[in-house]
């Protein structure tokens, strides 16, 4: 595992463009090796911009979208048609615009499909065990102003869950309160973890995540490391480094 790398960009547009290029290249390279890469998507504001950029560039790329497996680092436990679903956002902005194989789009079950977030977490973990390659080629994550990533919130019991792939999260400080998150163990099984952050509101959390001292309990993003870890930042998000 190497030290985290920081890539700074002038603004959000340049940031999104660079992440989109890098992701497309990474998927193309994996497919050229004969793999069907597991890609972990994130929710949040900058992710939506990224998804739109990927959809815009898709026709000019040589990615075979039917040979990409899509997963999520976390999901809000709400109804399938809720605008709060990370999967719904990704479908609208990307997945509905490229020729994915529906069998390779692995959504976390919604609150009108299973009885409880625990059941959704178990089903999602089972799907990852059965259909995943064991390693995310790229797992993309946002970071909240409080330092949360996926649905791992500061001081929350989910941070301590071991020997599990996914965990139910209740009483999330950010609405909606019920969620499902990959555990640190599952997230850390990644060739590349890419944190993507834009805006001054993220600056302090980014600085805490990258500081030499600090705890995962205070800043959960500190707990995620891939074989390669990259922080993709715009200048505003990098301003407290
Ligand atoms: O609730 C969530 O928040 C984080 C960060 O979102 P942002 O809008 O502050 O960038 C996101 O990464 C996560 O997937 C989502 O469920």
UniProtKB/TrEMBL annotation:
Pfam families: Glucosamine_iso. Its EC number is 3.1.1.31. Pathway: Carbohydrate degradation; pentose phosphate pathway; D-ribulose 5-phosphate from D-glucose 6-phosphate (oxidative stage): step 2/3. Signal peptide: none annotated. It is an enzyme of class 3 (hydrolase). Keywords: Hydrolase. Residues 11-231 form the Glucosamine/galactosamine-6-phosphate isomerase domain. The keyword rRNA-binding does not apply. The keyword Hydrolase applies. It catalyses: 6-phospho-D-glucono-1,5-lactone + H2O = 6-phospho-D-gluconate + H(+). Belongs to the glucosamine/galactosamine-6-phosphate isomerase family. 6-phosphogluconolactonase subfamily. Hydrolysis of 6-phosphogluconolactone to 6-phosphogluconate. This is 6-phosphogluconolactonase. It comes from Nocardioides flavus. The gene is pgl.
């Amino acid at each position: 595992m190497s030290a985290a790398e920081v890539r700074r960009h002038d603004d959000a547009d340049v940031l999104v463009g660079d992440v989109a290029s890098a992701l497309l290249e990474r998927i193309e390279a994996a497919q050229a090796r004969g793999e069907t890469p597991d890609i972990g998507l994130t929710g949040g504001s900058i992710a939506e911009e990224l998804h739109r950029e990927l959809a815009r560039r898709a026709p000019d790329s040589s990615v075979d979208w039917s040979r990409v497996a899509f997963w999520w680092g976390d999901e809000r436990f709400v109804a399938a048609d809720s605008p709060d679903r990370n999967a719904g956002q990704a479908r609208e902005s990307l997945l509905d615009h490229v020729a994915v194989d529906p069998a390779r789009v692995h959504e976390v079950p919604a609150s009108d499909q299973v009885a409880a977030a625990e059941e959704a977490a178990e089903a999602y973990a089972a799907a990852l065990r059965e259909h995943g390659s064991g390693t995310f080629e790229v797992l993309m994550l946002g970071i909240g102003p409080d330092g949360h990533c996926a649905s791992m919130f500061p001081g929350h019991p989910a941070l301590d869950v071991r020997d599990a792939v996914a965990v139910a999260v209740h009483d999330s400080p950010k609405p909606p309160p019920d969620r499902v998150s990959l555990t640190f163990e599952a997230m850390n099984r990644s060739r590349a973890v890419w944190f993507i952050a834009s805006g001054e509101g993220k600056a302090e959390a980014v600085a805490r995540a990258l500081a030499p001292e600090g705890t995962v309990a205070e800043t959960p993003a500190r707990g995620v490391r891939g074989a390669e870890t990259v922080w993709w930042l715009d200048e505003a998000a990098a301003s407290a480094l």
